[in-house]
TrEMBL record:
The chain crosses the membrane at residues 40-62, 130-151, 172-189, 201-222, 234-253, 259-281. Signal peptide: none annotated. The keyword Cell division does not apply. InterPro entries: AA-Vitamin_Transporters, EamA_dom, EmrE-like. Residues 10-142, 176-306 form the EamA domain. Keywords: Membrane, Transmembrane, Transmembrane helix. The keyword Transmembrane helix applies. It is a multi-pass membrane protein. It is found in: Membrane. The lineage of its organism: Archaea, Methanobacteriati, Methanobacteriota, Stenosarchaea group, Halobacteria. One of its GO terms (cellular component) is membrane. This is EamA domain-containing protein.
Length: 310
């Protein structure tokens, strides 16, 4: 196997892991038993972040990565980014999965490169290319097509069309906010990496900042501590698996980028909404019956990919 083939395989693995994360969270939220005063989404976020922190600091230890050149100033952008993603982002994303399902949530969140590109223009002084402009139009067009599909209420024998037909405008607030936080965190990380180019350390710091934020919340609020308690083993296992899938996603993504080019890695690593859709149809033992849904999600994925590689 060539290095290019290995890089492509790892990028595809990153997408699969990201899709499995969303489905694992959805399974835990749907099949776990929670008291009415608990917050399953908050529990899922905390458990998955704790798993990520453990994995990444273990990797830093076993790989003997030096932190001698790290300073508070250099690490601050990554810590701030961690408050946005994974802390706030994952909570909102998991709330969205609980409310409207993994498929639509993943499709909305995958449009984050559009917001990141728009933020990068004034913040980082970057410019929009023709490819980025076309990608933005693809994302907007795909989002519009999803809205039309949901508004018509047609083709309700399709699992995704059913979810879309049940949507209202407020249901999209959580995934849209998550998308914005994710995009903003990318800009912060990009800024930080210009002064400290160790992605693994950056990720570990961001994950740790998120866990510390959750810890401070629990110290300050007894209600939050109570709401995050979990006694259901099914949900706990699902949320732990989700954290493992997230860690595997990042590891595969970083390794793929080290071995191959962005042009090769970005399109494959951004296929996770389609992975979620394919796995969802497979689990339901159903073939897609709504071509518009597939075209819409494909358009969003294609647009996000264009904005990453151009």
């Amino acid at each position: 196997m060539s290095i290019i083939e290995l890089s492509a395989g790892l990028a595809l693995l990153a997408s699969i892991c990201s899709g499995l994360q969303a489905l694992a969270v959805e399974y835990g939220l749907s099949n776990g038993e929670f008291d009415e005063d608990r917050s399953p989404a908050l529990t899922a976020a905390v458990v998955s972040v704790a798993v990520g922190v453990t994995v990444f600091w273990a990797l830093l230890f076993f790989r003997d990565v030096s932190l001698r050149d790290a300073t508070v100033v250099k690490l601050l952008p990554f810590a701030l980014a961690g408050l946005a993603n994974p802390a706030a982002f994952r909570l909102l994303y998991f709330q969205s999965i609980d409310r409207i399902g993994a498929r639509i949530s993943a499709a909305v969140v995958s449009a984050n490169p559009a917001v990141a590109a728009l933020l990068a223009v004034p913040v980082l002084g970057e410019s929009l290319t023709l490819g980025s402009g076309i990608g933005l139009l693809c994302i907007v067009g795909g989002g519009g097509l999803l809205h039309v599909t949901g508004a018509t209420g047609a083709e309700t024998t399709d699992i995704i069309a059913d979810e879309l037909s049940a949507l209202n405008g407020r249901d999209l607030l959580a995934p849209l906010a998550a998308m914005g936080l994710l995009a903003g965190s990318f800009v912060l990380v990009k800024t930080g990496l210009e002064n400290y180019s160790k992605p693994l350390v950056a990720t570990a710091v961001g994950q740790t900042a998120a866990l510390v934020a959750f810890g401070m919340l629990f110290v300050a609020s007894g209600t939050s501590r109570h709401r995050v308690r979990i006694r259901d083993s099914t949900a706990l296992l699902a949320f732990t698996l989700a954290g493992a899938f997230v860690a595997a996603n990042w590891l595969a993504w970083f390794t793929a980028l080290q071995l191959g080019s962005v042009v090769t890695v970005a399109p494959l690593s951004n296929l996770y909404p389609l992975v979620v859709v394919i796995l969802s149809y497979a689990i339901a033992r159903q073939l897609p019956r709504s071509p518009r849904v597939i075209v819409a999600i494909g358009s969003i994925v294609a647009g996000a990919t264009l904005m990453q590689v151009t």
